[in-house]
Structure formats: structure tokens, C-alpha cells
Amino acid sequence: MATALPLDLNRLTLAHPLPLDSGKVLEGVELAYETYGTLAADRGNAILIFHALTGDQFVARQHPVTGKPGWWERMVGPGLPIDTDRHFIICANIIGGCMGSTGPASPGPDGQPWGMRFPVITVRDMVRAQVALLDQLGIGTLHAVVGGSMGGMLALSLAANWPGRASRVLAIATTARHSAQNIAFHEVGRQAIMADPDWAGGDYYGGSGKGPEKGLSVARMAAHITYLSEAGLTEKFGRRLQDREAKSFGFDADFQVESYLRYQGISFTNRFDANSYLYITRAMDYFDLAEEHGGRLADAFQHVGDTRFCVISFDTDWLYPTAESRAVVHALNAVAAPVSFVELSAPFGHDSFLLDCPALDRVVKGFVG
């Protein structure tokens, strides 16, 4: 189970109940969020950043649980591509998350953690909550909305379902729906969590506080492989052993890549809730922007007006390959929406948007302005 949350998280309670796509309603929804920069007097310089599956609101600030730098610290800040000297940046932990926003670990109506009683949520529900957050902050039209990976799904959903709320939409390394392969990888992770005896049907918040750490660690390891590229793994690890002379071969982490994945898995359990992982991955798998609008992706964007779009993919991303981005671009072209598209070359696979990629910096800076 994730480490206890800091007490000083910046939270806002939504003024109205939140209707969900399932037909249920969440009362007293809390959103934990961070802001960077200064909101202009006319409130026209706001940029909303949506985080990815395992991200949170700490875009450009030290993470209070891990102590690590913000996940996009290289992109957001004074003088950086998303310039906090010019823009007011907002990033909120999604509903269903585990860094302060209402989710499975939050108290339910009876005061006990929701666990698996938490209602099913969708990507559109996540966006709906953040639109309500913007309303309470008094922000009407965003200068831009930005998201990578799952965050890109949210950005596209906002553009399609709340047209006019953003002047610019930047969607990076993302898709309009999951493929069977995407769903399959997520299901492996979910089954690993639910097969852990400490999952206890999702009711693991009391007592010793021990949750399904082994299952969640395996889920993270499986997912992390999809974020990388074969070339990147080969260059970084190859088939190198930890210590060829001293290692006694067996089921320990003999290969360096094994040790790396195990570290990724174990460290993940310190900051993430297993039930949140179940709910969020399921929401991503349900996401199908075309199906939401009658089965034709172009129809999802028929009311976007003069909103400008920029779609970015990476040539080594096999989780959401360039063909997925092209499908979004073709749909936007079909309704004559202003859109630019670029496929960038980077060796890092899907995670390229988080890592050192100067070409990405230039595109983001040029588009966001």
C-alpha cells in the first residue's frame, strides 16, 4: 500500500456532486492540485496539464513522498518550454488517484475506505471533475491543455466533450482508444494485483496497512516494459549480468535488466495504491472517443471550432505507435480543425515525452507560445 499522504496537500472540494458516466454520483469530491506561475488578471494565461497513469500533480515540484524532482521538471518552469513566467500552470491528481484526490482509498459514505465499492470511473469522468475544478477557480477558456499518454487521452476528451474550454490542445504519445494489446498488458497487471493474497478483495486499508505490494510491483514491472524501446533496453542493459564472477546463478536478479525492473516495481509500491491502479487502468481500457460519439472519430471533433491542435508521436513508441496519432489527425482533418502533427525520433520508446528530447522541447514551446 502507498505511503501515507502528507497533510499539507493543496485540495479543493467540488461545490456540487459529480455525475459519473455509470449513472452514479459522487458527493464531496476532493481534488488535490498544484499550481505554478501567476494567473493573469484576465485569467487568459492558464494551462491545464493532465498527468499520465502513474503520475500526479507534482509536475515541477519535489514529490512529497519520494523526494524526487517533479515528473516534468525539465519542461515546466521559468524560461522552459511551458514557461511559468508567462503562464499559470494547473495540474490536478485525477479522481480515482491516490495522491489526495477522491479515490478508492478515500473515505466512503460510511467513513471507511471505499476500496472496491468505489464506483466505476471513465476518462470522461476524470475530465468532468477537472472542468468543475476550473469552474471553481474562475477559469473559463484555457490558453492550452497539455497531456502525454493517458494525459493525452484526457486532453482529447476535453476538446471533444467540452469544446471551447481550451484554445490549444497538445496531445503527446497518446491514442483515441486502446488496442487489444494495450488491454492485454493492463489485464496482466490487474490479475497480478488481485492474485496477491494481501489484496483481500480490495479491503486492505486497515490493520497492519500491508497491501498487495508484490502484485502491484509485478504490475508495474509489466507496464514499465511497454514504456521502453527494445533499442533502449539493449543499449542500457543488453544481456549484461550483475557480476559475472561472483554471481551464483539461480532466481536472483542475475541480469541487470531484471534488477532494474524489480527496483521500478518495488519503488512504485511506496507511492501508489493498488486499487487506484485497477480503476485507472480499467478507465483507460474503456476509453474509446469514437464510440462515445456514435462510432466515428471525426464526429467527436465536429464542434471544436477554431481550437488549435498539435499531435506528437515518437518513432520508437510501440505502446501508442504513430499510427494511433495519425488516426486522431485524420479525424481532425475530416472536420477541418487546425492541426499540426509531428513524429519525433527518440530512442526511449513511449517514455520519450518524459525524457531528454530537445526536438520535443522546441515543438512544445512553439505551440504553447
The CA-CA distance between the termini, in Å, is 41 Å
The structural class is alpha/beta
User: What is the CATH topology of the largest domain?
Assistant: Rossmann fold
**Roughly what is the average pLDDT, rounded to an integer?**
93
The topology string of helices and strands comes to EEEEEEEEHEHEHHHHHHHEHEH
Shape: globular
Contiguous helical run count: 11
Fourth-level CATH superfamily of the largest domain: Alpha/Beta hydrolase fold, catalytic domain
CATH architecture of the largest domain: 3-Layer(aba) Sandwich
Total domain modules: 2
Roughly how much helix do the residues carry, as a percent range?
25-40%
- Give the strand line-up of the largest sheet: 1-4-8-5-9-10-11-12
Pathway: Amino-acid biosynthesis; L-methionine biosynthesis via de novo pathway; O-acetyl-L-homoserine from L-homoserine: step 1/1
Subcellular location: Cytoplasm
Family: Belongs to the AB hydrolase superfamily. MetX family.
Domain AB hydrolase-1: 45-354
Explain briefly what this protein structure is.
It is found in: Cytoplasm. The chain is of the alpha/beta class.
Overview of the molecule:
- The chain has 369 residues and is an alpha/beta fold.
- It has two domains: 11-178 and 287-368, Rossmann fold (3-Layer(aba) Sandwich); 182-280, Rna Polymerase Sigma Factor, Chain: A.
- The protein is built from eleven helices and twelve strands.
- The strands form three sheets. The protein has an eight-stranded mixed β-sheet, sandwiched between helices.
- α1 crosses α2, α3 (180-195) runs antiparallel to α7 and α4 (213-227) crosses α6.
- Residues 245-250 have low confidence and may be disordered.
